[in-house]
User: Fold Actin-related protein 2/3 complex subunit from Aegilops tauschii subsp. strangulata.
Amino acid sequence: MGCRLVPGKCPLAVLSVIPYSDGTFNQSVTVIAFCPNTTEVHIYKFFTDKWEKLHVLAKHDQIVSGIDWSRSSNKIVTVSHDRNSYVWTQEGQDWVPTLVILKLNRAALCVHWSPKENKFAVGSGAKSVSICYYEQENNWWISKVIRKKHESSVTSVAWHPNNIHLATTSTDGKCRVFSTIIKGVDTRGPQAGASVDWKFGEQIAQLDLSPTWAFGVRWSPSGKTLAYAGHSSMIYFVDDVEGSPAAQNLALRDLPLRDILFVSEKMAIGVGFDCNPLIFAADETGLWSFVRYLDERKVTPSTSKASQLSEALGKLYGQSRQGSSSDTVEPSKPRGGAHENCITCIVPLRKGSESIVKRFSTSGLDGKIVVWDLENHITIPK
Assistant:
């Protein structure tokens, strides 16, 4: 395991690990927590020119499927296929776990801290979402569950900046927005607006845009735009979700996305089975379009359509692009790409109160965590 700096290119660093399920950095972006596709969470720190292991968080009985590290409170939350969640608090040199009661009968699949870090949401295979919060009186983490709204597994969750609205995607193809207001936890604020009038678990919106599985839901920094991806190689941008939703559907020419990140109000990055981040931008009228791939790679042309089809199927089903082909002509191969397999996760790396994301990390099934620096390579519209 090691880190290599890549001067002069967009990827800032590459951390190579075995294929893993999720990972996140701390606030200073010097320490990373990830799951190496096991029941453990490993914490590494970067020293001068290499990454060194600091801690191993071992409490789950099955594979860890989600990790999120709170920026302000410095707490790590983990969820697993064992249907449990733990909140890890650093005490001295040790990380101490606290069990969270999720009330699930199926695997937990994803997790995300709320903007104020007083709640977190857990999506699951039980067709439900657990909203977890700390109860001061009893000194424990408990949850309230949003049930009977999803028709299949919840694949991703995303918090609105107001700390109350929560967006979800599901393998039933739908994107939904719920109210998660909890008495004694949420208070009225300038961003809340009419959100406090909704009851807990009440469905605010349901978007039926995708005919296939839906993934990677995210809000823009202001919360005015919602984006998510469909497994039919589509990406959807929706404005004014709470009022009169106006949707834009973009069809991709290549493979589906798995996750999305807004780097500003008018620019988003999508990652997925193409193994290369895609840049999307909105013009002055609010119309979104695909701009280009972020990781510029030289492609060896191929005259064989069969080879290109074989390569596309190989990428879709996780096979190596270097694999053998029955065709006599070698398939086209991207050269010099940071990732060599599906990118499953994208995480913003902010410092302080930055409103624009200038750096982010991606992780994939090739066992790499890549840090990308946008500042000197593209102009980010505000």
